[in-house]
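Objective 1b: paired records.
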Amino acid sequence: MEHEKGSDLRDLLIVLPGCEKLDMCFSCGTCVSRCPIQQKIEPAYNPRRLLKMIALNMQQESFTSITPYLCSACDLCYSACPQEIHISAVLNGVKKLAMQAGFSTPLKTARVDALTCVGCGFCEKVCPYQAITVKETNVPLRGKNLLIAEVDGAKCMACGTCSSICRSNSIELQDRENSEEVVQDLWSWLETVEMGAEK
């Protein structure tokens, strides 16, 4: 789905909830300095650079950037931003517009095996990103419509919470084999968020 010709990325974003102050960014870099993602997980993650690309109407570059997909919405940047820009909302808006335009996440996300999923809904309840819904799906090899978990790639952060609670082992992370690594990443992130909240 292509956006109307002549519609600036900024114009598409500014009307979305949480993006109202987008124009107030003066590239101070506070968001980047407070973010645990860039420091601990991915050096290429840079919200400030993405906000500049939005201002320059670099739609293609914004939609293919890894930055919107890595944001965990911890909002450490939001509480520190002198302009009170809700950066996670802006990044989520970019991700939403990218998906509408036919782009997909560059991240490896959780994947559900429809043949073994029992549709219990535990994964949906524990997902911190509301990336999973359980809905009736036609499963040809099982011969009928069944309740099956479905992962929204636009929201999934591959944190591993769903796969760790799945009692039928029907959810796996495409690129994360070691569950100890997943748990360690989660603890590191929680410690970082907790330290940020104490400041």
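Objective 1b, second protein:
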Amino acid sequence: MATPIETQLEAFRPELTGYCYRMLGSAFEAEDAVQDTLVRAWKSYEGFEGRSALRSWLYRIATNVCLTMLGSAQRRARPMDLAPAGSGHAAHPGEPRPDEIWVGPVPDGRVLAAVADPAQVVADRESIRLAFVAALQHLPPKQRAVLILREVLAWSAQEVAELLDLSVASVNSALQRARATIASTDKAAQVLEPDDEEQKKLLARYVQAFESYDLTALTALLHEDATLSMPPLPLWLRGTDDIIAWMTGTGSGCEGSRLIPVVASGLPAFGQYRVAADGDGHTPWALTVLEISDGRIAGVNNFLDTERLFPLFGLPERLPREEAA
């Protein structure tokens, strides 16, 4: 049974996980960082003495944990950040790259509090978009912390200065530089209200087109310069011609897939299941996160590490024949 202190600390887990996810770019590293934070807080709680607010104290610990983790880490990125677009006629998507280099998705429920205001839901989801989190990785770690604390979490410059042991002037200067970097690197996808009817219709058409493998219908849902990526594989594609060429060529094994809806990094997503090798049902293939802009799909991000991602998102290990019919 949890002690009162453990219960008190545990209540901060979701917001701390969101903070660490934005800092680190990985749901799995964020969970490790938060666990380390809470263990450190529990061990040193007697010495806390309430000299600052508990929340501020926990964020100080979490920030130090993240800064240590980032000290020797390679900057996480998306495939589009690392190489030019490839060809949809490629015979092979390349060898998998290490997990440590990729920005990955996170379940909204792990990092965002449940709120009733749809506008607040949109604002919260905006702050965990893949493109925004990838843009954050371009910032030096302390500058990254400043921007998240000031712009996302709405801390005052004085509060951030105290947490990071900086002057207010230094915080304001770091924030100005961070804003400029983000403005030049973050290509915003559209984050809509959870019950947006147009998005619901678009997603329904996407599921119908993909599951029936109607590539003409699918093309109509994509922007002409839409992108498709599939980390940890390095190949990524730009444009409907290359995407459809891939789906009819090397990637044609996706025909017959089934999709289970989820929400990832503030965006609509699906667990994709391909026909099992033995023909009996469907097995995990990818967590697909869609980026939408102006009523059409601008990005299809297929994360292939289903062994870790499907349990994280609560997706089943397999769709039996009766569910996949």
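The first strand starts at residue 222 and ends at 230. The beta strands are 222-230, 233-238, 258-264, 267-275, 282-293, 296-303.
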